[in-house]
Amino acid sequence: MESITVLGIMGLGGQEIFLVALFVLLFFGAKKIPELMRGLGQGINEFKNATKDVKENIEKSMEDPK
C-alpha cells in the first residue's frame, strides 16, 4: 500500500515504471541488480536507525529536567 502511495505522489503509471525498470536492467545488467537492491536496503535501514536514534535523543532531552 505504501508503494502505491509513493507512486501516486510521483505521478508514475504502469508504463513509466516498466520503462524505468527496463532502463535499470539494460544499464546495470541482471547480475548487478541484486547487489544494488541490497545496498539500497542497507542504506534505508541505516537511515531508519539514525532517525530512530535522533527521535529517542529528542524525547529523552525533553524528559530530563534541567
Helix and strand arrangement:
Elements: H1 2-10, H2 14-28, H3 33-63
Major sheet, described briefly? none
Show unreliable segments: none
Using only CA atoms, what is the Rg?
18 Å
The count of helical stretches stands at 3
**Distance N terminus to C terminus?**
43 Å
Shape, please?
elongated
Strand content: under 5%
Number of strands: 0
Class derived from helix and strand content: mainly alpha
**What is the domain tally?**
2
Series of secondary-structure elements, N-terminal to C-terminal: HHH
The averaged pLDDT comes out at 82
- Tell me roughly what share of residues is in helical segments: over 70%
Membrane topology: Single-pass membrane protein
GO molecular function: protein transmembrane transporter activity
Family: Belongs to the TatA/E family.
Keywords: Cell inner membrane, Cell membrane, Membrane, Protein transport, Translocation, Transmembrane, Transmembrane helix, Transport
